[in-house]
Amino acid sequence: MAAAAAAAVGGPQPPQPELPAPGLALDKAATAAHLKAALSRPDNRAGAEELQALLERVLSAERPLAAAADGEEAAAAGGGGGPGAAEEEALEWCKCLLAGGGGYDEFCAAVRAYDPAALCGLVWTANFVAYRCRTCGISPCMSLCAECFHQGDHTGHDFNMFRSQAGGACDCGDSNVMRESGFCKRHQIKSSSNIPCVPKDLLMMSEFVLPRFIFCLIQYLREGYNEPAADVPSEKDLNKVLQLLEPQISFLEDLTKMGGAMRSVLTQVLTNQQNYKDLTSGLGENACAKKSHEKYLIALKSSGLTYPEDKLVYGLQEPSAGTSTLAVQGFAGATGTLGQLDSSDEEDQDGSQGLGKRKRVKLSSSTKDQSIMDVLKHKSFLEELLFWTIKYEFPQKMVTFLLNMLPDQEYKVAFTKTFVQHYAFIMKTLKKSHESDTMSNRIVHISVQLFSNEELARQVTEECQLLDIMVTVLLYMMESCLIKSELQDEENSLHVVVNCGEALLKNNTYWPLVSDFINILSHQSVAKRFLEDHGLLVTWMNFVSFFQGMNLNKRELNEHVEFESQTYYAAFAAELEACAQPMWGLLSHCKVRETQEYTRNVVRYCLEALQDWFDAINFVDEPAPNQVTFHLPLHRYYAMFLSKAVKCQELDLDSVLPDQEMLMKLMIHPLQIQASLAEIHSNMWVRNGLQIKGQAMTYVQSHFCNSMIDPDIYLLQVCASRLDPDYFISSVFERFKVVDLLTMASQHQNTVLDAEHERSMLEGALTFLVILLSLRLHLGMSDDEILRAEMVAQLCMNDRTHSSLLDLIPENPNPKSGIIPGSYSFESVLSAVADFKAPVFEPGGSMQQGMYTPKAEVWDQEFDPVMVILRTVYRRDVQSAMDRYTAFLKQSGKFPGNPWPPYKKRTTLHPSYKGLMRLLHCKTLHIVLFTLLYKILMDHQNLSEHVLCMVLYLIELGLENSAEEESDEEASVCGPERCHDSWFPGSNLVSNMRHFINYVRVRVPETAPEVKRDSPASTSSDSLSSLHSSRRPKVLQRENSGTAQVFSLVAERRKKFQEIINRSSSEANQVVRPKTSNKWSAPGSAPQLTTAILEIKESILSLLIKLHHKLSGKQNSYYPPWLDDIEILIQPEIPKYNHGDGITAVERILLKAALQSRMNKRIIEEICRKVTPPVPPKKITAAEKKTLDKEERRQKARERQQKLLAEFASRQKSFMETAMDVDSPENDIPMEIATAEPQVSEAVYDCVICGQSGPSSEDRPTGLVVLLQASSVLGQCRDNIEPKKLPITEEEQIYPWDTCAAVHDVRLSLLQRYFKDSSCLLAVSIGWEGGVYVQTCGHTLHIDCHKSYMESLRNDQVLQGFSVDKGEFTCPLCRQFANSVLPCYPGSNVESNLWQRPSNKSIQDLIKEVEELQGRPGAFPVSISSETNLSKEMESVMKDIKNTTQKKYRDYSKTPGSPDNDFLFMYSVARTNLELELIHRGGNLCSGGASTAGKRSCLNQLFHVLALHMRLYSIDSEYNPWRKLTQLVEEMNSQQGNEEQQPEVPILYHDVTSLLLIQILMMPQPLRKDHFTCIVKVLFTLLYTQALVALSVKCNEEDRLAWKHTGALKKNACDAEKSYEVLLSFVISELSKGKLYHEEGTQECAMVSPIAWSPESMEKYLQDFCLPFLRITSLLQHHLFGEDLPSCQEEEEFSVLSSCLGLLPTFYQTEHPFISASCLDWPVPAFDIISQWCFEINSFTERHAEQGKALLIQESRWKLPHLLQLPENYNTIFQYYHRKTCSVCTKVPKDPAVCLVCGTFVCLKGLCCKQQSYCECVLHSQNCGAGTGIFLLINASVIIIIRGHRFCLWGSVYLDAHGEEDRDLRRGKPLYICKERYKVLEQQWISHTFDHINKRWGPHYNGL
User: Fold this and answer.
1) What residues contact 676, with CB distance under 8 A and at least 6 apart?
2) Backbone angles phi, psi at 1246, to 5 degrees
3) Position with higher pLDDT, 86 vs 1594
4) Residue 1759 and residue 1278: Cα distance in Å, rounded?
5) Which sign, positive or negative, has the C-alpha torsion 371, 376, 379, 380?
6) How many distinct helices (H) and strands (E) make up the chain?
7) What number of other Cβ atoms are within 10 A of residue 72's Cβ?
8) Burial class of residue 389, CB neighbours in 10 A (0-12, 13-18, 19+)
9) Angle, alpha carbons 1497-1503-1509 (nearest 5°)
10) How many CB atoms lie within 10 A of CB 311?
11) What would the mean pLDDT of 1679-1697 be, rounded to a whole number?
12) Are 518 and 816 in contact (CB under 8 A)?
């Protein structure tokens, strides 16, 4: 057979479309076995040929399929069975051949046995749940699959769970990426040693078959690919081909899963170059192969790639991969085959953009880059497979296959090299792709696996020029979207920037590249290569300069922009990702002294790039006005490397700084940004729209600040420390446009700024100076200090959750890691500065998260307003911090008023930056400070407290950082005379403070008041004249040389710059100069200015003292403290000065000034003496004390007032509550029943709409605002104490048959089987499921008012989450949710009191009265015949009640619509409400009193409505159970007669509580108290008998006989009817007559309790049996008659309730132990009635003993309802449910949810499980909770509540270690149950208050 087969295939026949001959098809296995044998021979040439021929035949059978896919020759596929069949056939053949004749599955198993699985390598796609452990990870990208994670030990590690965005692979077992300690159990063992060698013959066939198979796949891909037409995207065609290839690729994927042995065969096949050459060269005579090769070449060409055909190239490219690029370069230079970079398709793309001003920039090193970009040569299957994978835009299946192979080390290296080789091509494809998002994800999915491994990354960098390729490709990518920069010199600028509006930037298309680049730079060995390679650094700086100055903003001066561009998102993202993150990556490797060289390199090329940039934009010294860019990456690179050099590498700063001129240029743009920030906040850019504010915010926002504003400020600090301070200060004020404001004159003209912006710009300038001078982030703070300062700043603004702190504190972004450097120190710093506030509940039900709040000592010592200002995104946060600070000071009693921001001591400056402090000691700044102090004192306009605050702050900074102790004699002024020398003699602030300035010459507008004065007025010259005597000569001499001139900052600055320019002899700049200086000549429209001389005669010290007077509002308020207490000068740190307002600040400064120099001290004393006649010091303190007392008294008065107001408010509130409390209208009026004619007073109600009070009348009834809702809470009670747990394994399941609802259901259906339907419906209650619960907020309104209110709501279009059409509304007063109005029954209080009078009638009389009253139909005070408004309302509310619940919960009758149904439903509503109230009280009445539930209860009104309707159905007196309870029936046998009819339910099977409600609701209302008591007494006899019967059934035969005997002996005693023993024995003897006790079957034994019954345990059983009835009855009595419930201990509950109900005779003594039987009061002889009752039972058990018994044993002790118990750790729930399949649709739901009431697993929003337009959750909420559902969303950890047609997100009951929710599991930290929250949830469920407490409801349209 085999020979024949071989013959049939022999010879290279041209491929035919039909299948192989049927003979072959039948016997694949045999053929395979034969071939395997042939190949195993030593000389296997024949076998090999045979196999080749067979494969050629089998695999080419697929050919026509590809043609069909192209739609060219679909007809050719007509061969047997169609294309699909051929394909299957081929796969079958391959499987058979691989297995070599055996079974394929056995083959797979055999191969798996040889798997040395040291690595996991599981590949996953997007949305997979994986883990990342930062403790175990070496690479930040490390990830583990759930299985490996749980198998490893990560307790106490810093890990989180995450949903994969792009897909990934498990790193378990790979020690390059993670520490071995974290490996799981499976991958810990290096198993290669004990795995046996693979037998040669096992995989022999695979080595022959697979090359053909893969080649066939490649041919397929070649044929299927058509270049997309220019306009039509061809995804559809590509997808079609891929779908057809699905089986083949899956087959390959399955092979990779067979383990290491098969993977190494595949690696051989994929990387073998010879195989590839033989099969694909297309040189053979096979036409098909030729055609395929041509298609391949076309595809290469169309991709803009060349295929080097030259022999020369072959020769060159064959050697090692290392030389290839060079060889190609040589070739590229030699031959001219390469096209220009802009291949045709690129140009088309550009054309379509239509950007006229686009300017292409050629790369300088064109040839090298061309080869990187444009040459591809494939030498193995792997390479071409990757090529097609890229061409087809990374199909998921192919990606998974390629990644599945990675555990094979040899393959990993080969694949990485191939990937790098194709890198440029990948990016070209990505740029053109329509699905760039998906494609980006898939690319990163691959690259992250390759480049996270340092060893591999290093190897590829060395051998394949990885860095060159990446940088070149990045450059190439950005080149396509460059435009001319408009910064500075629009016309002549040579600089180009990226255009942020382009798709490439807008859609972030570049991120895969950047992400890879950042990834490889995180490896030290790679980063070092980068930093050493000068060529690369130059290219990289070139790349960064593309972003320098992008997204330029030009200020709109006239009208608002029409279109707000949102390009700034793209710009900020691009700078952060493409520039800053690589920068941080590089910086992380420059941490030690040995790396100095790297820093020098970067700084050098950075400065060169900056110089080029300044030249390109034609920048000299003035920035162009009204434009700003926030993007200066070159400046920031420079700044950050400088900072690193000084901080970590001990480099000398000056050695890396440029010359002065360059520094001046460097500071301009960052300073421009700071000024623009102030302008934006001053609303000067308002016409540019909101986006400009967005930019200002983003610039300082936590993710950006340390790559943007921090480096900018640091760079400015460096410049300031090295430039002339006067020049720097004047530059600042000029940039902020406030120079003109800094004049002594009261009026001035500002040419560049509107008056309304002056104040805030001045504030901005001063604040900037304060920040510049006090910030130490890069000037000497250690990392931990920085972290602490950042944390304190964030916490001072607001309390923060742990996660928001992590988010707000700028990480030192070592890019890819989500790791905050030293995240351990994060926790320790946090615990040092903050206290944790555990999550609390507010009464409103809003859930708080766990928060951190600053410790008191942090407020006291560390609160730093400067840091807060720097870090606030919103201005309101600064205010918030100050408010919190104020509150702290008030609370701790440190300062009562409104404090100023405190002055905080700074950390010491690093020596390299000492020069920064010269700014504080330069005359320019002193003049500004002096001027501003003077202006503030003189109340000039546009100055604020903030300005003063900053001025004082600067003075204080200057005093703190003054130079070495200055000598008291003046330093001689040296150097040329400058204009500001006429102000101050020296530059030291300490000495300048005491320098008096007498006259100042100012330029003022002619209108200014100063001009009119004749002589300089002087206010304080007299008192100060003596002071001058000592210094007169000097001052006069100074005045002679001219009064202090108008100080022109600008002129000053010009002069400075000119000097520097002159010094640098570059002529070029000289030539440019005139152009810029012309700009600043005064504009022609300048107002007429004239010069005036002002007399000032003040020094800074005197101004400060006067300010003190001004601030305190009292003359002479300042008194030097050291005069009283000399100690102050020795120990200056006085806490009293730490916090306070301006007065304190002034005092603190004066004290510091005095400390710094004796001269100052003396002068301060003199000034004070002159201003104030010296007063004995003691008195001053007394006066101060007095004022302080006054202040305190005021404060106390204020507090008293507050207290009174609060008290008044609470009184008002409680009045509202009592006024609206409608439960006890009876108690309001004290009644004197004795009076002959009692006055009738009716209950009065207030209408909350119209505000009128009055009784409820028939014509105008009042109603209670109520919420009706269906509830199944009662049905969830169970009889076991253990709460049910949520199932978390397949074994745990919850079955609902032990719930109260199920038990009652079973009971009703049992009764209905054997007894008459109408009688059954009176024997039980329904409403355990879907019962209607009525609750009220207690407010009342007129029903007609309510109707008009509803009308107005209906017309109001804006509805807040409720539907008016369904009758829903909110209470007009308290806004509580409601949906109906319950009419209040008109009644007078007297009546109820009269009814309560105890009567002395006998029980027999009362029984008769009750029967008569029940017989009177509709005997109601309101005659039903005449329809009144009241009765209409009662009917409509009854309709509402019925419609509240679903039909299935109302109709239990066998005959639908029977009146018995309504009857049953109505008394069950009463039952439901009573039972629920009992549950709200905790299941018993021990607490007594009216509980909270009482206030909400409206049972009184509800009873009236129900009674009215129940009396419409009179029970036929024949069937009235009352008869059976109170009368003896004559003939007992009558029942046997009519057998064909179903009998009535025996009275002992009746539910006594239901009987009670029926009896009471059938009586005319209001009910008399003695009638009520009578009914209760009668029913208690029945109940007690039921208890005895149940007891007798429960015990065994012997006990029964014993009791029967003992009881019989006592039968004749006097109180026999009140002895349970007697009664029990009688019951047993009566029931023994029937068959009840006979059926002692085997199963019965189970029910019999093994305990021996003692009298005590029997008494307890009887009491427990009766208690539920007593509780409900007492509650009912409480509501009907308003009697209070007594409170008691649990053990005496029975006796207390029974006496409260009047069951216990009044004379009863409580000494001897209480016996329940003593409550009995038999209306007829006990033994007669009992035997009558027992007779009914016996006649039933004749036929149905089993059921008869079951019905007697009732479970009376239900436990309170609970939600399911949840596990401690959320992960257990998540792991079980997130992959669980839905039982309905058997799919894994996208949004799984689980019901917390019954544990059902449902699909949220799943269309798969939709039934009649209801999605599964909504449906379940109706079936499980009658419209209320509580679901835990598995993937989000939150709880969602469904209530009727609305839903709301409730919150989460699982919190992390820091007390925070993790909605949607975004952070993936471990979550733990918060028991308090869960209790709150359960409480809201049981008390039905979801609607009131949760505020955010929305309609769900049945879609959940």
Assistant:
1) 628, 685, 696
2) -100, 135
3) 1594
4) 6
5) positive
6) 81, 28
7) 11
8) buried
9) 145
10) 8
11) 83
12) yes
> pLDDT tens digit string along 1329-1382?
989 999 998 899 999 999 999 988 888 766 566 788 888 898 988 888 999 999
At residue 1092, the 3 state secondary structure works out as strand
Interhelix angle for 235-256 vs 204-224, to 10°?
170
Hey, how many other C-beta atoms are within 10 angstroms of the C-beta on 946?
Answer: 17
- Phi/psi of residue 1223, each to 5°? -75, -30
Question: Do the beta carbons of residue 660 and residue 615 sit within 8 Å?
Answer: no
C-alpha 155/C-alpha 159 separation (Å) is 9
Across 352-361, 385-394, 903-912, 1571-1580, least confident range: 352-361
Q: Is 1899 left (phi over 0), alpha (psi -120 to 50) or beta?
A: beta
Count how many Cα atoms sit within 13 Å of the Cα of residue 1172 in the half-sphere of its side chain.
Answer: 18
Token pair 């649990």 is at which residue?
1690
Torsion of the alpha carbons at 17, 19, 22 and 24, rounded to the nearest 10: 120
Residues 6+ apart with CB under 8 A from 855: 833, 834, 835
What the block records as the tokens of 7 is 């013959």
Query: Which residue's entry shows tokens 């240029």?
Result: 665
Provide the pLDDT for residue 1628: 85
Distance (Å, rounded) from C-alpha 794 to C-alpha 804? 10
More confident residue, 1743 or 812: 1743
- Whole-model pTM over 0.85: no
SS3 at position 745? coil
DSSP calls for 1439-1452: HHHHHHS-GGGT--
Residue-level length of the chain: 1904
Q: How many Cβ atoms from other residues are within 10 Å of residue 947's Cβ?
A: 20
| Position 454 pLDDT exceeds 70 | yes
Per-residue DSSP letter, 861: I
Q: Which residues contact 1073 (CB under 8 A, 6 or more apart)?
A: 620, 1061
Q: Are 1348 and 1584 in contact (CB under 8 A)?
A: no
Peptide bond just before 1767 cis, omega within 30 deg: no
SS (H, E, C) 951-1014: HHHHHHHHHHCCCCCCCCCCCCCCCCCCHHHHCCCCCCHHHHCCCCEEEEEEEEECCCHHHHCC
Query: 711: exposed, middle or buried (C-beta count within 10 Å: 0-12, 13-18, 19+)?
Result: buried
Single-letter code of the amino acid located at 815: P
Distance CA 840, CA 1121 (A): 48
Radius of gyration of the chain (CA): 47
Are 241 and 233 a contacting pair, CB within 8 Å?
no
Name residue 347's amino acid. Answer: E
Give 1020-1078 pLDDT, tens digit per residue: 222 222 222 222 233 323 333 334 545 556 566 666 666 665 555 343 333 333 333 33
> Cβ-count burial of 566 within 10 angstroms (0-12 exposed, 13-18 middle, 19+ buried)?
middle
Contact yes or no for 1886/1840 (Cβ under 8 A): no
Mean pLDDT, to the nearest integer, of 37-41?
Answer: 68
Tokens describing residue 1121: 């403290």
Map residue 322 onto helix, strand or coil: helix
With 60 as the cut, is the pLDDT of residue 1176 above it?
no
359 pLDDT band, cuts 50/70/90, is very low
Amino acid code (one letter) for 49: E
Question: Of the ranges 932-941, 1156-1165, 1354-1363, 1861-1870, which one carries the lowest mean pLDDT score?
Answer: 1354-1363
Beta bridge partners of 1278: 1299
Phi, psi of 1872 (to 5 degrees): -125, 150
- C-alpha distances out from residue 826 to 606, 793, 953, Å: 33, 14, 31
DSSP codes of every residue in 1634-1690: TTTTT---HHHHHHS--SPPPHHHHHHHHHHHHHHHHHHHHHHHHHHH-PPPPP--S
